[in-house]
Design brief:
The protein is an alpha/beta fold and 154 residues long. It is built from four helices and five strands, in the order βααβαβαββ. Helix content is 25%, strand content 21%. The N and C termini lie far apart (32 Å). It binds iron/sulfur cluster. Iron/sulfur cluster (SF4) binds next to loops.
């Protein structure tokens, strides 16, 4: 399968396994690069053959909730973005293609309580529907004070 990372930004270079995993290292660290949704193509090396448990997080979440890595990142592949500042339609098209073509075991949306962030859940829900795949989708909502306000399966 061809690698299709959008060219033009040095940060787009794909790294499959980062050095923060391994003997003596914490096992909940970031496992790959890049992580920004906008920087990824629709063929994503770190998702190939991974049957991944995918965490899609709003940009603000990691800076708001405590212990983001320990609580949410363990054994998951991460994609982050902002459905308000980025183009949500492009997110929808990208995730629809990803879900249509790459086996994904489960998607968890981690978003802020503020209304602008609910768009991430809506995009993922619609993309799964459009893909025709039966991918479980969970949502965790983070309050602006850093508390987990709710978790649900959609
Ligand atoms: S949608 Fe709003 S809360 Fe969510 S990542 Fe963007 S700015 Fe932050």
């Amino acid at each position: 399968m061809s690698k299709h990372i959008i060219e033009g930004c040095p940060s787009c270079s794909s790294i499959g396994e980062l050095a923060n995993k391994g003997e003596g290292k914490k096992d909940y660290g970031l496992s790959h690069w890049p992580i920004q949704i906008k920087l990824m193509g629709t063929v994503i090396p770190f998702l190939d053959n991974a049957n991944a448990d995918l965490l899609v997080a709003g940009d603000c979440t990691a800076f708001t909730v405590q212990n983001f890595h320990e609580r949410f990142l363990k054994d998951r592949k991460l994609m982050i973005g902002c459905p308000k500042l980025d183009n949500a339609q492009l997110y929808l098209e990208k995730f629809t293609e990803i879900f249509s073509n790459i086996p994904i075991r489960k998607v968890t949306c981690l978003r802020m309580e503020v209304p602008c962030c609910s768009g991430m859940t809506a995009v993922l829900k619609e993309a799964i529907k459009l893909s025709g795949k039966d991918i479980p989708l969970d949502e965790t909502i983070i309050g602006v004070k850093g508390d987990v306000l709710g978790e649900r399966t959609l």
